Amino acid sequence: MPDEQRAPAIVILDFGSQYSELIARRVRETEVYSLVMSYSTTPEELRQIAPSGIILSGGPSSVYSERAPQCDPGLWELGIPVLGVCYGMQLMVQQLGGRVEPATGRAEYGKAPLHVDDPTDLLTNVEDGSTMWMSHGDAVESLPDGFTRLAHTENTPEAAVAHHGRRLYGVQFHPEVVHSQGGMALIRNFVYHICECQPDWTTDAFIEEALAQVRRQVGDKRVLLALSGGVDSSTLAFLLHRAIGDRLTCMFIDQGFMRKGEPEFLMELFDQRFHIHVEYINARERFISRLAGITDPEQKRKIIGTEFIRVFEQESKRLGPFDYLAQGTLYPDVIESAGTNVDPRTGERVAVKIKSHHNVGGLPKDLQFKLVEPLRRLFKDEVRKVGRSLGLPEEIVRRHPFPGPGLAIRILGEVTDEKLDTLRDADLIVREEIARAGLYHEIWQAFAVLLPVRSVGVMGDQRTYAWPIVLRCVSSEDGMTADWSRLPDDLLERLATRIVNEVAGVNRVVLDITSKPPGTIEWE
Ligand code: XMP
Question: Are 82 and 92 in contact (CB under 8 A)?
């Protein structure tokens, strides 16, 4: 089990749906602890975990395809309530003796009004006519013995079904997605009334458990934490400081690519305001000199990553020895989901993809710490709640993501001190104006990019020949996809005027109107 402390009240078995994580989050929104596990989890393993309920996710496969991921039929004999969603429902029906067929001509994608036939039990408080989100090419043609219909839609006769006696439920729609009206009511009915779960997954309960667990794990040993100023490492610092006090050493490596005022802000906040001591490491010279003459983006990232490890290694030896390294790993990083190892087109199992893009790679062999990762059970929104509850100020809790290599990847071509100063000034104006317009929290990220080309302009009577700044402002849910933000004209105008007037070396401002995909959020 991925968690030695608390067993999940609800286990989500993942059949490769893009929504498996979302189901887990929705269940947690009801203050019931849930985990995503592989569809291949055995009945024996489930018996040991003893969840109060099991949800089978959707999935891209067809239950009658040869390679369709199956669950062990022993699942139905555990006596634990099961809710099958979409593919999960079809699997339940098929394994228990019903029939699933391609819904030729009646496949349903998108919103459909749900007609409730049995308004009790799973569908209590789900209004007749509620819009539900459908996405299926197969449909249930006949039900197994003992099952009854709870609801239908125009195209789907069996849209929600149940075997009341065995507490087995299936829905053809996706209650977890935001477009499904009454979806949360359905999930609450399942977890509270059918599975009889208690709402005990609260921020305070998490903090108490995490404090005890960290103290137990670390004992009287010392822990090192590399603070970045983002919400994860900051929350981690607050949590660990509360758990073990001065046996935590926070280290902030300033590589010289932070936003204007950021190093000072962080030191002031942690050290002076919250009395969490932070070792400030000024490594600016080292990083910039390594980047001299480097223009290739991949090479830049690599050099920054390698240098980070070198500084980290050197400084941890100087300040150490440490037994533990604290890491802000979150739950999405540890989910072993079928989504990452089932090919969505064929339903075939494929090798697990490794996320390497954004991480600084591994630490060298001779610098192996034991890890302390108290946030590994949390989703990002839960980290924010924990941070807030530990007293972390809002300006950290709700800050935009900022890449590890910092402004170095927002300067195209060679990074120099001069360009860094220019970009920092432009970036500050972007931050100020977005905040002044009250748009900070509606935007995922807003920043400036410096292009190393010159164009002609005129200021006063002078001809100028200087760099352009690109404005990059996007809205996004998770950074995986993004849309460019439609900013008000007067804000854009203020940004352009201020940047050209106040930032030396810049004579033009352009706006990036590319979504992701095909663009990325960052320019490098
Ligand atoms: P892209 O540019 O890939 O960015 O669309 C997606 C999200 O990831 C952030 N990002 C990074 N974060 N180290 C990080 O810690 C990196 O090297 C890095 N590159 C991109 C980016 O800011 C956006 O939020």
Answer: yes
Name 483's bridge partners.
Answer: 475
Closest CA to 31 of 10, 46, 56: 10
Minimal CA–CA distance to 160: which of 116, 203, 190? Answer: 116
The radius of gyration of the chain from alpha carbons, rounded to an integer in Å, stands at 26
Write out pLDDT tens, residues 120-132.
999 999 999 999 9
**pTM, full prediction:** 0.90
pLDDT tens figures, 196-217: 999 999 999 999 999 999 999 9
List the structure tokens of 326: 């604290």
* Ligand 1 atom with the shortest distance to the CA of 519: 5
Which among 257, 300, 358 is the best mutation to test ligand 1's pocket, defined by most ligand atoms within 8 Å of the CB?
358
Whether 176 is catalytic is yes
Domains (ranges, CATH) in the chain?
A: 10-194 (3.40.50.880), 203-397 (3.40.50.620), 410-511 (3.30.300.10)
- Ligand 1 atom with least separation from CA of 523: 2
Res 348 pLDDT > 90: no
For 62-66, 156-160, 365-369, 461-465, which range has the lowest pLDDT when averaged over its residues? 365-369
Q: How far is the CA of 34 from the centre of ligand 1 (A)?
A: 28
Pocket probe mutation, ligand 1, options 255, 521, 523, max atoms within 8 Å of Cβ: 521
